[in-house]
């Protein structure tokens, strides 16, 4: 064997190295680098990181993969609740994130100048040009300012007839398909049909058509739900998401786009068709008297008087569909089921509704929201209690710490990320009492000043500068429809048909649910 001379040219791979060997060597080096980096990162996170003294599972303190896997499990809320039970009110659930369970911290975490954390959910959900996108608070304030008017109470009232039309269509469809036939049905599915049709009506002026056809039009729900779990889980490992984004052309494969046939992209494609038609109409000076949110976005202006770009309008429109559909459907189905499981509360609510109709205080065919608020006060209590124990957003909304936060005998430093999961916060026993898991609407039947204090402990609609813009719309569409459902029909929980499951829930940040089987019978429709 020839002995290599020190004068030989340096050739670490060997001059006769085949392409296969070369590739093998590159992969080996890449793996060594990758695992070297991971090892260093874990060691840093465990022993040198500014949050190293906070309690939490070793895996969670070492790597973002821990939270990625529990998000992927579909029960992030239970995982985080369990972490708080094991480790107390401040838990290190990711290397750079502390979760907080105590509602007293809501104003500290969600203050007006808090930046959103590093989770890039915006892009994975196609929302990076919308108000919901992560980023500095100044950018968010600018985006929110130009669209806030669309969500004002004055405008919501103008949109009320649009919602009434959907309520009438929904109750008529249930009557025709199930009440008349005596068939049981999955209320989870129909609650989705109703709320998706409502959001597309208030966004674009027309429903998707789920209720009218009684089907998942163009498999939109299936496609959207299929993509959502992946998007929220991958957002837990921002470095991985960013690394994927750096591979040329790779992001095109996984970031949803309107040309996709599946996933969130399919929903975007649907949005684009409606949006393009409306933009063309707008350019011709037509359709300016429409009452939907899109006409507000088309007319909205930045501070310098420039209009919103098409991309920005598209982002806001998609945000309405994503933020305002499953959340409201969850509220509606849990409100009905909570009432059906608590007959005293159901009766009390129904008596209030009947009395208000009998005395002509609720108008027909659909009462106004103002009437419902005034004449059926117990509904508000039932709704609040539902939003408390079945928070439709059951994942922490992360923020970056800009002022040190005292956390027991430790301090969460500037630059760390903090978050509070509404599902957990609403089960904080010291705040809500030993019966915090129980649906007890009477807890809200207290003096106005006490109610206001209780509301401050709720995180259902988020907090601070990024509090939900659609809260008024959500409360209106759920309150009015439940009044109609209870006025017109008798309800009971039905057994799941053979081969079907009951009450299946899957948390992707918002809930995907099925198997809420019910039977409905016609009541005295003359009422
Ligand atoms: C019960 C139903 C709903 C719940 C529980 C809910 C919850 C939330 C939460 C927790 C946030 C804050 C997210 C964050 O901090 O990043 C939010 C933001 C938002 N929601 Fe809702 N939402 C509901 C219904 C709606 C509806 C019906 C719409 C529109 C029609 C809507 C539009 C929005 C918008 C535009 C934002 C972004 C606000 C901002 O970042 O400034 N939501 N929602």
From TrEMBL:
Heme binds at residue 468. The keyword Iron applies. Its cofactor is heme. The keyword ATP-binding does not apply. It holds the Pfam family p450. InterPro entries: Cyt_P450 (IPR001128), Cyt_P450_CS (IPR017972), Cyt_P450_E_grp-I (IPR002401), Cyt_P450_sf (IPR036396), Cytochrome_P450_monoxygenase (IPR050121). One of its GO terms (molecular function) is heme binding. Keywords: Heme, Iron, Metal-binding, Monooxygenase, Oxidoreductase. PROSITE patterns: CYTOCHROME_P450 (PS00086). Transmembrane segments: none annotated. PANTHER family: CYTOCHROME P450, P450, PUTATIVE (EUROFUNG)-RELATED. Belongs to the cytochrome P450 family. This is Cytochrome P450 monooxygenase. It comes from Ascobolus immersus RN42.
């Amino acid at each position: 064997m020839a002995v290599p001379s020190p004068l030989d040219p340096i050739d670490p791979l060997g001059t006769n190295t085949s392409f296969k060997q070369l590739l093998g060597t590159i992969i080996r080096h890449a793996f060594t680098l990758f695992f070297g980096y991971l090892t260093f990162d874990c060691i840093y996170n465990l022993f040198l990181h500014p949050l190293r003294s906070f309690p939490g599972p070793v895996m969670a303190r070492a790597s973002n993969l821990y939270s990625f896997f529990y998000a992927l499990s579909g029960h992030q809320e239970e995982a985080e609740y369990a972490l708080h039970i094991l480790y107390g009110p401040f838990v290190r659930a990711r290397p750079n994130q502390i979760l907080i369970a105590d509602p007293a911290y809501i104003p500290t975490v969600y203050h007006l100048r808090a930046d959103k954390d590093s989770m890039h959910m915006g892009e994975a959900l196609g929302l990076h040009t919308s108000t919901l996108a992560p980023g500095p608070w100044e950018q968010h304030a600018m985006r929110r300012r130009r669209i806030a008017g669309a969500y004002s109470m004055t405008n919501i009232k103008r949109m009320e007839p649009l919602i009434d039309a959907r309520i009438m269509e929904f109750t008529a469809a249930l009557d025709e398909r199930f009440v008349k036939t005596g068939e049981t049905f999955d209320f989870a599915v129909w609650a989705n049909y109703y709320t998706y049709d409502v959001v597309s009506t208030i966004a674009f002026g027309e429903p998707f058509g789920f209720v009218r056809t009684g089907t998942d039009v163009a498999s939109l729900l299936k496609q959207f739900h299929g993509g959502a779990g992946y998007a929220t889980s991958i957002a837990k490992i921002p470095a991985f998401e960013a690394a994927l984004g750096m591979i040329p052309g790779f992001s095109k494969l996984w970031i949803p786009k309107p040309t996709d046939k599946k996933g969130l992209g399919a929903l975007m494609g649907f949005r684009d068709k409606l949006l393009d038609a409306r933009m063309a109409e707008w350019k011709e000076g037509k359709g300016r008297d429409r009452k939907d949110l899109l006409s507000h976005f088309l007319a909205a202006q930045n501070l310098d008087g420039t209009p919103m770009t098409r991309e920005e309008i598209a982002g806001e429109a998609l945000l309405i569909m994503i933020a305002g559909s499953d959340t409201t459907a969850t509220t509606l189905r849990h409100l009905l089921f909570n009432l059906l499981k608590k007959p005293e509360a159901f009766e009390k609510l129904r008596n209030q509704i009947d009395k208000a109709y009998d005395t002509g205080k609720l108008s027909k065919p659909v009462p106004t929201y103002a009437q419902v608020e005034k004449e059926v006060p117990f509904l508000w209590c039932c709704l609040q209690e539902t939003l408390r124990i079945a928070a439709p957003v059951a994942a922490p909304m992360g923020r970056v710490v800009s002022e040190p936060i005292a956390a027991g005998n430790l301090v969460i430093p500037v630059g760390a990320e903090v978050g509070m999961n509404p599902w957990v916060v609403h089960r904080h026993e010291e705040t809500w009492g030993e019966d915090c898991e129980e649906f007890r609407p009477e807890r809200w039947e207290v003096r106005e000043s006490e109610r206001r204090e209780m509301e401050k402990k709720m995180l259902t609609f988020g907090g601070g500068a990024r509090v939900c813009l659609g809260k008024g719309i959500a409360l209106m569409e759920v309150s009015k429809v439940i009044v109609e459902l209870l006025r017109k029909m008798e309800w009971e929980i039905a057994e799941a048909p053979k081969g079907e499951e009951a009450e299946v829930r899957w948390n992707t940040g918002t809930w995907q649910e099925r198997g809420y089987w019910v039977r409905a019978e016609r009541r005295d429709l003359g009422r």
